[in-house]
Amino acid sequence: MASIFFSMASLSMHDRLPPTPAIPDSARIFPEGSCDTHFHVFGDAREFPLIDERSYTPAPASMADYWAAFGPVGVERCVLVQPSVYGRDHSLLKRMLREAAPGSMRGVAVIFEDTSEREIEELHALGVRGARCNALFSGGVSAASLRAIADRIAAFGWHLQLLVDVEHDPDLVPRVTATGLQVVVDHFGHPAPGATPQGPGLANLRALLAEGRAWVKFSGAYRLSASACATDPAVIPLAHALARANPERILWGSDWPHPGIDARATAGSELAGALRAWLPDGDLRQVLVRNPTQLYWNH
């Protein structure tokens, strides 16, 4: 499969992403109605300023770049996630949601304890269905604020999305589920490379999946890989353990354009193909169509 290499650390704010290799129509991998539940866009920093306390500086990455990468493999719907580098400013997220084709996009915002009710209402009307806590990168919401944020979003039926290392605090996700909200955990639970499904944090996550009290995104596999590779075979046992816990609570995300990490940037077909290896029963339709429809479009 075609693939390209680049270092996010080497790109300035005005550089472009490398061009996406052309993918023939025959490379469609995903079923009709498939959804990528985790990607980002980055605008020109002169129009959409980055916060000073950010952990990385991304290159511009547009919706046209995104669809060129994942439209050919069969992605038809997507969930745009607010990145930490914009902090409280949802201007770019709002613009993308307004410009999206009807029914094609949902969003996940960053809500703080003092975010106004008016702002939350506007985001909801545009298609936002979740609030993200990013405890790993500067500029995000801290785990200590989650109870207050849960109270702010409960009336809208949103979920809480957590970017945390479940092994660093094994009881965090169970504590958050006690708020009564749906909880989505990014990037397989984001354990360190070499983690096994038997670790206490991952064991708790598997139990919550089995009970239907949490969701997990199969995304950012290179963040768990010592070689920063999305198709690292070492990730497969973890993916299988999570999927077997409850395939009805698994989501897929490209994590495009792979921000904040010196990783290999793969063609859409390679990232999409990796999902087949991660699902022990190969049920792409459950993960790519039914599950995101339930979480993002059924309310």
Nutshell version of this structure?
The chain has one domain (25-297): Alpha-Beta Barrel (TIM Barrel). The chain is 29% helix and 15% strand.
Structure description:
The chain is α/β, with parallel strands linked by helices. The chain has a single domain (25-297), classed as TIM Barrel, CATH 3.20.20. Helices cover 29% and strands 15% of the residues. The protein contains nine helices and ten strands. It has helices at 63-70, 91-99, 117-126, 146-153, 172-177, 200-210, 236-245, 268-278, 284-297, and strands at residues 3-5, 34-39, 75-81, 105-109, 128-134, 159-163, 183-185, 215-218, 250-252, 264-266. The strands form two sheets. The chain has an eight-stranded parallel beta sheet with strand order 2-3-4-5-6-7-8-9, with helices on both faces. It has a two-stranded antiparallel sheet with strand order 1-10. Helix 1 (63-70) links the parallel strand 2 (34-39) and strand 3. It starts with a strand and ends with a helix. The model is unreliable at 1-26 (pLDDT under 50).
